[in-house]
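Sequence, C-alpha cells quoted for completeness.
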Amino acid sequence: MVSRLSFLVTADEHNSWVLPVVDDLPLTDLIESYERENGYTDPAGGYGPIRCNDLDFSRRTINLLACECGETGCWPLQATLSQKDAWVVWSEFRQPHRSNRDYSGFGPFQFLRSDHDAAIKGLCLYGS
C-alpha cells in the first residue's frame, strides 16, 4: 500500500521542528496508538517533533521523532530507510532504549520516491 507523506514544520526562537505526517496522521499519534495497543505503556508515546538539524534522510537508520523534551538521544523513534527504483520505504521501527519492544507490526510505510523527495525538499531551509 502506498502512503502519503507530509510534514508539519514549526519554529521557535532557537530551532525549526519537523513532525512527519503519514496518511494525514501525525507519526506521534500513530506510534502512541501502536504502543498502547501492544501494552507498551511504560511509557506509551512520549515522542515529539525532531529538530531539523537532527533529521538526516541520507542515512540508512534514521531518527524520525525525538523525545517530547526535544532531545533525539533521550527517546527517539528510529526506522530503516530503504530506496529502490521508484520507492522509499520506512521499516524496521525501533525504540533503542526499549530493545524488548517489538515494532514489527508497525509499518512499513511505502512512498513513491518522487513524493517522498518532494515532501522533504527544503524542509530545513529556514530557522535551523
